[in-house]
Amino acid sequence: MDQFYLDNAALYQNLVKRLKPAPPTARPAGKPTEVPSPDMVVSARIRPLLNEDLASGFPCALFLRANQPNVVDIHDLYNHPKGIPILKSFNYEVDRLFGPDATSQEIYDSQVRDLVSFSWDGGVGTLFAYGQTGSGKTTTISGLEKLVVDSLVDSGRPSSCKIYLSIIELAGNSSFDLLSSRKPISILEDSFGVTQLAGIEEHQLIQGEREAAENLIERAASFRRTAPTLKNDASSRSHSICRLRIQRGDDHGTGDGFLYLVDLAGSEAARDVATHGAERMRETREINISLSVLKDCIRGKAQADALAFSSGPKSKQKRPHIPFRQSALTKVLKHVFDPSASASKTKTVVIACVNPSLADVGPSKNTLRYAEMLRVSVPAAVAANNSSKKANSNPTMSVRPSSRDPNPAAASMPFHSRVRPGMVVSYNTTPSGEDLDASGAAGSAQFAVILSPTGTSSRGSTGEDADKNMPSFRGSGARYLCAQVVPAVISGAYEVNMWQQVVVDVRSMEKEVIMEYDIGTRYYYIVD
Ligand code: ADP
Ligand code: MG
């Protein structure tokens, strides 16, 4: 195909020159009373043709419309079997289109500034860059990451507001901390169904310290940058997620704000098995599945939000399915997609990145088609209502999953005989060894959530892998691997620290503590 395009480049340019300007397209934009969802903005960025693109001889195939600023035309050349090649034209509409001259600052001003203030208010703002390898995703995300951290550290907010940065890479089912020399981390769901990134390091950004913040961004980029121009380099086969957590001090009484900037894996189709081998094909299929699950989650969440706003929490209408458990990417982004989170808490921007060269016309069409599929229309009244809401207004349900045993009969059994994974317990903190970790201050009341049994300790050290390097607590009954539950910044609230694990003997456990996870504040609370 490439050779066909090159052989006919002059003809292609002639045919394009002779095209009449397309009449404005009337799109089937749903019902007249519907408008694009204000909490889900789909934009596209066409990167410039680079010197190497020009040198390769492929002409430009993407064209902005003068009379419709958010519509892009793609002209493709088809090899007509009976005559000269013919042009076929396609057009795509997005909420906001950025041409080759657009700067990071323009994109920040129109698409990202709102997400940043939304997260300051306790919301979850997310930006995705989607597209084929070489289309400008990393350039776009890195430019915006820098502007985002600059604006956060220059915000002049009180010192009670703390900002934490972490950047991870997801490759298949493995994940790595890009701010910690690509140390492997685990994506775990605790017994409340809350996703925990076990082993991740968060780096605090200090007000006024721009350079330190930018250095962290650059450090993560250098771990990802292996061979950015190759379509099969590591960065094109993995997603990177930059997470900013904004802890707003306890005076606000609501949870942390989050801002996610996601540089997605290249969206290219599975390539020839002969050149890439079965392993690479499997990887590509996995990436394509995760991008497809992402699309379903984004659409499902936008539809669920529209439904919640238009019909209230008691609506009998069927809620859209949001399959966020089907990929590691959407599991990490559970804050964004959890259908039981309150509807006004998330805002999402997708930037579909495209390379304008005729060589990439097929993938560009796929990228823009994907972008169009993400656009969700909502009733105009919902949009007006929704856009006037702040991140921490809470118009709909607040669901509080509990650690209580779902079987009511369990409550009448003695405590030690009904210990089970998922139970939160208080335990006494007299350590059996000297190897108490920094967090396990002896003598204070401590809580933990039970993860799994690890065997018994009656014959001394059992040598199980799970026990290695873990503080363990005295006794001679069954032993359980537990995650510590520690006080959070808000008084009366707790956090589960999956990375602070302890092995606790059942005899050290004092009693069950019933806790509920509050989706509104994202903390755990003790209930009677
Ligand atoms: P991706 O992450 O999608 O694979 P990159 O961001 O690495 O793509 O971009 C591919 C190439 O295009 C790089 O050489 C990059 O410098 C260049 N590029 C991308 N976007 C722009 C832009 N807006 N202006 C100039 N060059 C760009
Ligand atoms: Mg990239």
Overall structural class, as computed from helix and strand content, comes to: alpha+beta
Bound molecules: adenosine-5'-diphosphate, magnesium ion
Please give the count of helices.
Answer: 11
Radius of gyration: 26 Å
Which outline best applies? elongated
Question: Cα distance, first to last residue?
Answer: 69 Å
Largest sheet: 11 strands, mixed
Mean pLDDT: 81
Beta-strand percent range: 25-35%
Number of strands: 24
Helix content: 25-40%
- Runs in which pLDDT lies below 50 for 5 or more consecutive residues are 393-399, 432-442, 457-467
Keywords: Hydrolase
Protein name: P-loop containing nucleoside triphosphate hydrolase protein
What does this structure look like?
Helix 4 (104-120) packs across helix 5 (137-153) and helix 5 (137-153) runs antiparallel to helix 6. The protein is α+β, with helices and mostly antiparallel strands. The strands form four sheets. Strands 2, 6, 7, 8, 9, 10, 11, 12, 13, 14 and 15 form an eleven-stranded mixed β-sheet that branches. Among the domains are: 1-27 and 47-100 and 356-362, no CATH class; 408-526, no CATH class. A hairpin with a 4-residue loop joins strand 23 and strand 24 (523-526). Helices cover 27% and strands 28% of the residues. 41% of the residues are buried. It has helices spanning 2-7, 9-18, 51-55, 104-120, 137-153, 210-224, 273-311, 328-332, 334-337, 361-374, 380-387, and strands at 34-36, 40-46, 62-64, 71-78, 86-93, 96-98, 124-131, 162-171, 174-177, 183-189, 195-198, 203-205, 239-247, 257-263, 346-354, 377-379, 424-427, 446-456, 472-473, 478-487, 493-505, 509-512, 515-518, 523-526. The structure holds adenosine-5'-diphosphate and magnesium ion. Adenosine-5'-diphosphate is lined by residues 47-48, 50, 131, 133-139, 228, 236, 353. The site of adenosine-5'-diphosphate (ADP) has 14 residues, from helix 5.
